[in-house]
Design brief:
Elements: H1 3-7, H2 22-43, H3 48-51, H4 62-85, H5 96-100, H6 103-107, H7 110-130, H8 133-136, E1 139-142, E2 147-150, H9 151-176
Antiparallel strand pairs: 1-2
Helix pairs in contact: 2-7, 2-9, 4-7, 4-9
């Protein structure tokens, strides 16, 4: 497998240029709702040694990926809430690589982050299901990429993000025969 295939096992994110259809939104929201259970299943039964294995050479360990998901999605959830309550807010980027190296990542059971991801996605998908067409068009500004993103685009990005990291874990388990 090439480095690109290992790094992007489902391909890179593709964001919609315009508004999503109702059906496309529903499909992405369903992916968001299912992600916590899928991640929990992908991590089930992994040993500490397996959790400390990078999903690719030079990549994060499975443990880091499992803690990264709720970290990232908490930030995303806040971005949605800011966009819904402020006029094109500038969001605060964070250094995800530095966060993955913080001491709590090694010291905290992955079960804590799996529970956090579950609770977060429950709340987030409840919010998503209530949004109006006008609200889906609301935007935030990301100073790192120097671009504005609609909530439709953010939904597509974070649904992809969850599947992306789920595939990191699942493809590593496939390659190593850890099922």
């Amino acid at each position: 497998m090439s480095e690109t295939d290992l790094r992007y096992p489902i391909g890179q994110a593709e964001l919609p240029a315009g508004p999503l259809s109702f059906g496309a939104r529903m499909a992405l929201m369903a992916q968001m709702a299912m992600l916590p259970d899928q991640v929990r299943a992908a991590a089930a039964g992994l040993t500490p040694e397996q959790l400390n294995t990078p999903y690719r050479p030079g990549g994060w360990t499975v443990r880091q990926v499992l803690h990264h998901l709720p970290d990232s999605h908490m930030n995303a959830y806040m971005r949605f809430r800011l966009a819904l309550t402020e006029d094109v807010p500038t969001i605060k980027p964070y250094d995800e690589g530095a966060w993955a190296e913080l001491p709590d990542v090694a010291a905290t059971s992955v079960g804590v982050s799996l529970s956090l991801l579950n609770a977060l996605h429950s709340r987030w998908t409840t919010l998503l299901r209530q949004l109006t067409e006008e609200q889906w068009a609301r935007r935030f500004y990301h100073p790192g990429s120097q671009k504005e993103f609609t909530l439709d685009q953010a939904l597509a990005m974070y649904a992809w993000h969850g599947r992306h990291h789920l595939a990191h874990i699942s493809s590593l388990r496939d390659r190593e025969g850890w099922w």
